[in-house]
Design brief:
about 0% strand, mainly alpha, single chain, about 400 residues, about 80% helix
């Protein structure tokens, strides 16, 4: 339950910001290209945090890491809410700190999720990511209501930031140790412990990172641009644009909740191939339609397909507990490159083609993910029998 709380709080915090992007864009009169560059600051903070997160988690543990980063995250939200009224430089500073906290928090809670998954002996990681999506859906629906009520960004974000900074550190005190006591038994894992940064030399880990990058881009572009595309390109109202974002998040939540049962039944690789095709259909329809209702329906398919890629990649990275912190950090670092490249790329394309048409790059990455899906297959475990006493 403590791990669910960490994922839910992280999702609620992130979507509180993401769902108010159109209002911040309007307040600062940002073009799509400038907005993409502003969003780059959040991604830059995450990219800086992720390579360091494996070392941090290995040193102080996932619980302490989440506690510290939740406080930084909450204070950053408070600053964003106030700072965006002061101009672009203040907003960029707040987003950078917000991204740094989100990135390190993300690695820590995934390491903890893998520890719980091993303790239970069944798939549950996707349900933790469903918890993240529950938080995002709740924040998006709340934001849609507050937009209709005329509540300003400068009030909503600081209040949520204080809630996250105070509540999350208390909630995660019940985290498990990041490695099981059995890990000390040489019959369980013969590999010696290594520095977390050594994971950067492993081909399988890097390939999983590329796989996660494709799904992070698929998910991240929806987070940043679905509402903007609906409002700017399809002329939907601001409330409908925010509601479309909520539909995407709701579909992701459903996918992540039912996915583990199907994953245990059919395996990671067949499941990921199936949902990748589903995401492809949803994105292609969203990019090509001129109908607002059809576009909103397409976000549902998009969300159903995108929901399982990231958590499956994290589970694959953490298959061997001794090296989980380093590998999750590497996979997250490579994957989050999508958040670094995505905003300016879609912003540039949106400036010339419109945001809706610019999203055509998403299916290309999904096709790559489909081709390399075999990398998430669990490694074969070689056991060494000890001689009898």
């Amino acid at each position: 339950m403590a791990t669910y709380a960490a994922f839910i709080a992280s999702g609620f915090s992130f979507a509180t910001w993401a769902s108010r992007i159109p209002q911040v864009q309007s307040a600062l009169e940002l073009s799509p290209q400038v907005l993409g560059l502003v969003l780059l600051s959040l991604a830059a903070g995450s990219i800086l945090a992720l390579p360091l997160a494996g070392v941090i988690v290995a040193r102080i543990g996932s619980s302490r890491t989440v506690q510290v980063m939740a406080v930084v995250n909450g204070l950053a939200l408070l600053w964003i809410g106030i700072g965006h009224t002061l101009g672009i430089p203040a907003l960029v500073v707040g987003l950078f700190c917000f991204g740094f906290a989100q990135g390190a928090w993300d690695v820590a809670m995934n390491v903890q999720g893998a520890a719980v998954e091993r303790r239970l002996g069944r798939s549950i990681m996707a349900r933790y990511h469903a918890g993240f999506s529950v938080g995002t859906v709740a924040a998006a629906l709340l934001s849609a209501a507050l937009v209709v009520a005329g509540v300003p960004v400068a009030l909503q974000l600081p209040l949520v930031g204080l809630l996250v900074a105070v509540g999350t550190p208390f909630a995660v005190r019940a985290f498990l140790a990041d490695t099981d006591p059995a890990d000390a038994d040489p019959s369980v894992d013969q590999a010696p412990r290594r520095h977390p940064l050594a994971a950067w030399t492993e081909p399988r880990t890097l390939l999983i990172g590329l796989f996660v990058l494709a799904f992070a881009f698929t998910e991240g572009t929806a987070n940043d641009w679905v509402a903007v595309a609906l409002i700017r390109d399809l002329q939907a109202s601001e409330a409908i644009g925010t509601l479309g974002f909520a539909v995407f998040l709701s579909a992701m939540t459903l996918s992540r909740w039912v996915g583990p049962r199907l994953q245990d039944r059919y395996g990671r690789v067949p499941m990921i191939r199936a949902v990748t095709v589903l995401a492809l259909i949803g994105v292609v329809v969203f990019v090509t339609t001129t109908s607002v209702p059809l576009a909103v329906a397409a976000t549902a398919l998009w969300g159903l397909g995108a929901g399982l890629g990231f958590p499956m990649g994290m589970s694959a990275a953490a298959d061997e507990p001794r090296h989980a912190a380093g590998r999750v950090s590497v996979v997250a670092s490579v994957g989050y490159t999508a958040f670094l490249a995505g905003p300016p790329l879609i912003g540039f394309l949106g400036e010339h083609w419109g945001v809706q048409k610019g999203l055509v790059v998403v299916p290309v990455l999904l096709l790559i993910a489909l081709l390399i899906a075999g990398c998430v297959r669990p490694p074969q475990v070689v056991t060494t029998e000890l001689p009898p006493d």
